[in-house]
Design a protein that fits this description.
The complex is a heterodimer of chains A (about 120) and B (about 110). Chain A is mainly β and about 120 residues long. Chain A is about 0% helix and about 50% strand. The chains are: A mainly beta (about 120), B mainly beta (about 110).
């Protein structure tokens, strides 16, 4: 069974940093591209970032470019999102989702709240 | 960026009704269009990819059609478990973008 489990969310002050993790199991993680998608409270879905299976290709949404860094460790079956210079508008549930461009499996999400 | 516009934003329907949701892209995306279902407090679920390809395990009452800029998701006979919010998403070019969602409510 494919499972994606996010962790690392929490309350952080504006300007602060946070690192999200996504632990994958039930499939050959190193063969799949992965994504982060977020959903602000009561709103729709926003794609955040993409990383290819071999880490050769990375994309970011303009809203996070220069502040967020996606990475992965295929040996640990894990996906990461390093978030810095956080803003109130980054408050959202963050999901990891298996790619490449249609998202067939999602984690349960982890809530990031940016507030003083 | 490609803008995705869904209509309606919400609808009320009864069990057994035929429901159609439309999604329009701001430019030609061929058939690079996916549909998701999201229930409150849950992660989205992929229903249809490549405009019309039903995902494994998704009931056949769901169907997708369209190409270019205009797409539809149809539920042929609405069931109680189908009350949810539905999103379209283009996978033609990054940034991948979603429609604003269509909330299907019980009449």
């Amino acid at each position: 069974e494919v499972q994606l489990v996010e962790s690392g969310g929490g309350l952080v002050q504006p300007g602060g940093s946070l690192r999200l993790s996504c632990a994958a199991s039930g499939f050959t993680f190193s063969s799949y591209s992965m994504n982060w998608v977020r959903q602000a409270p009561g709103t729709g879905l926003e794609w955040v970032s993409y990383i290819s299976s071999s880490i050769t290709t990375i994309y970011y949404a303009d809203s996070v470019k220069g502040r967020f860094t996606i990475s992965r460790d295929n040996a640990k079956n894990s996906l990461y999102l390093q978030m810095s210079s956080l803003r109130a508008e980054d408050t959202a549930v963050y999901y990891c989702a298996r790619g490449p461009s249609s998202f067939d499996y999602w984690g349960q999400g982890t809530l990031v709240t940016v507030s003083s | 960026d490609i803008q995705m516009t869904q209509s309606p934003s919400s609808l009320s329907a009864s069990v057994g009704d035929r429901v159609t949701i439309t999604c329009r892209a701001s430019q030609n995306i061929y058939t690079y269009l996916n549909w998701y279902q999201q229930k409150p407090g849950k992660a989205p679920k992929l229903l249809i990819s490549a405009a019309s390809s039903l995902q494994s395990g998704v009931p056949s009452r769901f169907s997708g059609s369209g190409s270019g800029t205009d797409f539809t998701l149809t539920i042929s006979s609405l069931q109680p478990e189908d009350f949810a919010t539905y999103y379209c998403q283009q996978s033609y070019i990054t940034p991948w973008t979603f429609g604003q969602g269509t909330k299907v409510e019980i009449k």
